[in-house]
């Protein structure tokens, strides 16, 4: 009996604790997940700065990257940023030997401000401004910032004045293009006059990577001259008799159009600077004359030195060991002002202030707001003083604190940030036991995670991206096995050379969807493709990353398949995967009876003789391997006359075999060289040879060719479509025993390729899609069906004519008629296998085929982590995206533009 009672008690305790654990877990899970999307105020009220496409300083905790002047422009995609001053040498040179052009001010330089000024808001106007300024010896500059509704602040206006004109540059409209002014600002032969430039210099770096070289700061001149004041208002009054209302500097400079007063204020800040600088320089020279004739320019030199010194500053984001730390300290000291030491503040007060400061810091970054807009210091102190017990109480504490501090403030209190995220804030205050290291990542996920409450923007994106990336990359490390490392080094080096030398940055660029999901890795060209079409924004510079501005079709979530994310491999794993893929390719070749390489080719003119002949022995004599053919032709063209005659005969014989054994000419050699080349290779050859390349002509008139085409078609197995290499028409022979035999017709000329608008996409692209060469995975080279393999700037479809391609399951696109496959690669092999599978077993076999490739990959690499949803047996379809050049609805309009 007693036993039963005890047992009952234990059961009750166990189930109660189990229930409460379940309850708490469930509660937290709901807090995290069941957040209505519309809860954040920015969802309905996007900000002006969200239209910026290139933001250099985002709100993440990562360091600011400076511009890097690059003389080696050939390494595209190489590191373009650094943490050194890109114009340090130019500026230091000026400090030793200043160049001041102010005495050149023309006699008739009028002090008055005219009615007219130039409002610069288009790219063209900006270009014109840059051109106009490049002809000036000196111009004056001032900038206006907006800082209330932005975390780091941004330049809202730049005023530039020359002797003739006042320009107001709308740096919101032109935000992404302001780099146009970099050359004039960095030109040491053009003086720039600012007043109190210390901040402007940094702001220009932060927003536009604009660096000021050759500055004359009128405030520094005042210092040198020991003026009683050095404010601009003072100088304006003293030298120009102009009064200005400095209260306007706190206006909201985002507004458009600017009010009359604001225009007047902005112009005034720059317009008189040239004149004032001129006066100050004259005074400084005067001073010098009075002292000693030796150093006539001592004062001017000093003012110039101090000015240029300010230009050597480098913008940096404030990075704190723990976010909000410095704000918390300043609140402690202010709160305790006159009340004793910081340590006397209760530890709860300190703890709450720290939490609130950290929360405010994160929230301000997420929403791109200033700290003071998100939550004031007063409000933080008030909350920490007496921690509210309900969320309603929390709101009124904030409102009251702000009212007490400044009853005339026009800022909303509590701010929309607090109101939108009241739950989190309240939770943060209640959760005394929790470690804030855990809370903040969770809050970030609540806000910006895949079903987060807040709007993703170019400013907050990297907060998420960087944390994501960490997870992604960490899992790829520690895969190198120590003992094998040395033995592998040689092959690794070879591998690196093989794959990474072709293009310096290989697939290290990231493409993210608008909600923060990593879609894939790709190369720089693809990023540029999206950016040129305004389809994406740059979210990270190094390594580059973009965020798509449209909702891509065929996204993982769309069909519950989290699949089309390329798997990033380290070099060693890549090598393993590659080896396995090569092995599997050989197996496939055997299984399907499709040889990996084209064994033999023969010129079409001679093919008639061969195919007409019944002796297969003759075929063997006549054909030649494409590689052998090319090597022989190349050697003969280059070194023919200087070769030992025996060697020359051997090589000539090889080429003759291609031409069915007949005598060959120089022109034949050139034709032979082109056999099996992809258009890309042909153009490369053409470039290498210069434009003097002698074109060989197709030997048959179009009519005859047509006839021949159809007549040979009858002798070719109808299901095997011709594999075309460049314009050379290659046909597979009908007879089984000749399955390794190709016939080449009408080798095209290089210029033809250019005219026909076939793109320059390296053959490897197609090869990849066909054989999954890179990693053995049918990887998503085409993000969400938008093909970005376009190298041309004319907007024509990336892969040449759109109708040359059609899609199959799993996003494999492959050529129907024109091929960019080189006969020397595995391209034709891949195509033949796919054709064969389709014909014999239908669509489903392709799916199985792809799955097998994935299996080969997994078996070879044994990845410990794969993207969520990545699955060997995955078989989701992918549709073409809205912007895809393969999207049938675009074919009519885009396909014709060649
Ligand atoms: P200014 O060139 O003097 O008009 O100042 C340039 C920018 O600095 C202004 O657009 C403001 O954003 C900022 N600024 C300067 N002084 C203040 C101030 N006292 N309060 C707020 N913002 C200021
Ligand atoms: Mn100003
Ligand atoms: Zn929000």
TrEMBL record:
The keyword Transmembrane helix applies. It holds the Pfam family HRDC. Keywords: Membrane, Transmembrane, Transmembrane helix. GO terms for biological process: exonucleolytic trimming to generate mature 3'-end of 5.8S rRNA from tricistronic rRNA transcript (SSU-rRNA, 5.8S rRNA, LSU-rRNA); histone mRNA catabolic process; nuclear polyadenylation-dependent antisense transcript catabolic process; nuclear polyadenylation-dependent CUT catabolic process; nuclear polyadenylation-dependent rRNA catabolic process; nuclear polyadenylation-dependent snoRNA catabolic process; nuclear polyadenylation-dependent snRNA catabolic process; poly(A)-dependent snoRNA 3'-end processing. GO terms for molecular function: 3'-5'-RNA exonuclease activity; nucleotide binding; single-stranded RNA binding. Residues 693-731, 751-804 are annotated as: Disordered. GO terms for cellular component: nuclear exosome (RNase complex); nucleolus. The chain crosses the membrane at residues 6-25. PANTHER family: POLYMYOSITIS/SCLERODERMA AUTOANTIGEN-RELATED, PROTEIN RRP6-LIKE 3. This is HRDC domain-containing protein. It comes from Ficus carica (Common fig).
């Amino acid at each position: 009996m007693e036993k039963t009672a005890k047992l009952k008690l234990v059961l009750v305790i166990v189930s109660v604790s189990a229930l409460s654990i379940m309850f708490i877990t469930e509660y937290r899970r709901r807090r995290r997940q069941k957040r209505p999307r519309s809860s954040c105020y920015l969802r309905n009220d996007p900000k002006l700065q969200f239209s910026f496409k290139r933001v250099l300083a985002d709100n993440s905790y990562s360091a600011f990257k400076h511009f890097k002047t690059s003389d080696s422009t050939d390494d595209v995609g190489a590191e373009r940023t650094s943490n050194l001053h890109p114009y340090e040498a130019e500026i230091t040179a000026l400090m030793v030997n200043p160049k001041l052009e102010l005495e050149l001010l023309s006699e008739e330089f009028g002090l008055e401000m005219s009615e007219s000024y130039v409002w610069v808001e288009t790219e063209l106007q900006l270009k014109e401004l840059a051109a106009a300024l490049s002809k000036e010896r000196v111009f004056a500059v001032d900038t206006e910032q907006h800082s209330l509704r932005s975390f780091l602040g941004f330049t809202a206006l730049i005023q530039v004045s020359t002797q003739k004109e006042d320009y107001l540059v709308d740096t919101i409209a032109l935000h992404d293009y302001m780099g146009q002014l970099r050359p004039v600002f960095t030109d040491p032969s053009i003086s720039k006059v600012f007043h109190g430039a210390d901040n402007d210099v940094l702001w220009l770096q932060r927003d536009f990577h604009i660096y000021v070289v050759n500055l004359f700061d009128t405030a520094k001149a005042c210092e040198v001259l020991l003026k009683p004041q050095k404010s601009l208002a003072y100088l304006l009054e003293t030298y120009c008799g102009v009064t200005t209302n400095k209260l306007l500097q706190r206006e909201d400079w985002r507004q458009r159009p600017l009010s009359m007063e604001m225009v007047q204020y902005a112009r005034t800040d720059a317009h008189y600077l040239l004149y004032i600088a001129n006066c100050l320089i004259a005074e400084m020279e005067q001073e010098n004359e009075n002292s000693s004739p030796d150093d006539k320019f001592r004062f001017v030199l000093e003012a110039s030195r101090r000015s240029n010194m300010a230009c050597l500053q480098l913008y940096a984001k404030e990075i704190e060991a723990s976010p909000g730390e410095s704000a918390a300290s300043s609140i402690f000291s202010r709160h305790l002002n006159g009340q004793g030491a910081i340590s006397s503040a209760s530890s709860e007060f300190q703890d709450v202030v720290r939490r609130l400061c950290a929360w405010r810091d994160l929230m301000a970054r997420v929403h791109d707001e200033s700290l003071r807009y998100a939550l004031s210091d007063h409000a933080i102190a008030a909350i920490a003083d007496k921690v509210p017990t309900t969320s309603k109480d929390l709101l009124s504490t904030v409102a009251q604190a702000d009212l007490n501090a400044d009853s005339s403030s026009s800022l909303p209190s509590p701010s929309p940030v607090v109101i939108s995220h009241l739950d989190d804030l309240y939770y943060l205050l209640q959760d005394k036991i929790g470690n804030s290291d855990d809370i903040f990542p969770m809050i970030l996920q609540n806000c910006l995670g895949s079903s987060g409450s807040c709007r993703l923007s170019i400013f907050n994106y990297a907060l998420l991206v960087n944390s994501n990336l960490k997870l992604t990359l960490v899992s790829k490390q520690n895969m190198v096995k120590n003992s094998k490392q040395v033995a592998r080094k040689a092959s690794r080096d070879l591998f690196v050379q093989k794959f990474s030398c072709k293009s310096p940055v290989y697939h290290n660029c990231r493409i993210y969807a608008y909600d923060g999901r990593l879609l894939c890795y790709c190369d720089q060209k693809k990023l540029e493709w999206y950016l040129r079409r305004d389809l994406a924004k740059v979210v990270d510079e190094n390594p580059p990353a973009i965020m798509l501005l449209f909702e891509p079709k065929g996204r993982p979530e769309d069909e519950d398949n989290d699949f089309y994310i390329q798997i990033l491999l380290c070099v060693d794993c890549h090598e393993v995967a590659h080896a396995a893929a090569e092995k599997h390719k050989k197996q496939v070749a055997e299984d399907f009876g499709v040889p990996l390489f084209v064994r033999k080719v023969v010129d079409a003119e001679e093919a008639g003789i061969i195919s007409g002949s019944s002796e297969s022995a003759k075929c063997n004599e006549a054909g030649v391997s494409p590689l052998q053919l090319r090597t022989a032709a190349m050697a003969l063209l280059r070194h023919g006359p200087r070769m030992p005659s025996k060697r020359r005969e051997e090589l000539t014989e090889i080429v003759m075999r291609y031409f069915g054994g007949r005598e060959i000419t120089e022109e034949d050699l050139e034709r032979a060289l082109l056999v099996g080349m992809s258009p890309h290779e042909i153009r490369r050859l053409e470039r290498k040879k210069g434009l003097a390349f002698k074109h060989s002509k197709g030997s048959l008139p179009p009519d005859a060719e047509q006839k021949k085409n159809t007549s040979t078609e009858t002798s070719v197995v109808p299901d095997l479509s011709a594999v075309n290499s460049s314009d050379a028409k290659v046909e597979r022979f009908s007879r089984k025993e000749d399955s390794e035999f190709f016939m080449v017709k009408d080798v095209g000329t290089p210029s033809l390729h250019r005219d026909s608008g076939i793109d320059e996409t390296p053959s490897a692209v197609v090869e990849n899609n066909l054989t999954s060469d890179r990693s053995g995975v049918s990887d998503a080279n085409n993000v969400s069906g938008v093909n970005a393999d376009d190298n041309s700037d004319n907007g024509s479809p990336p892969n040449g004519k759109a109708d040359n391609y059609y899609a199959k399951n799993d996003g494999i696109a492959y050529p129907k008629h024109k091929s960019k496959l080189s006969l020397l690669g595995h391209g034709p092999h891949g195509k033949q296998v796919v054709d064969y599978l389709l014909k014999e077993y239908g669509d489903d076999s392709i799916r199985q085929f792809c799955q097998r490739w994935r299996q080969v990959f997994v078996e070879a690499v044994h990845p410990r982590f794969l993207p969520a949803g990545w699955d060997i047996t995955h078989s989701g379809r992918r549709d073409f995206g809205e912007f895809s050049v393969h999207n049938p609805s675009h074919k009519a309009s885009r396909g014709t533009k060649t």
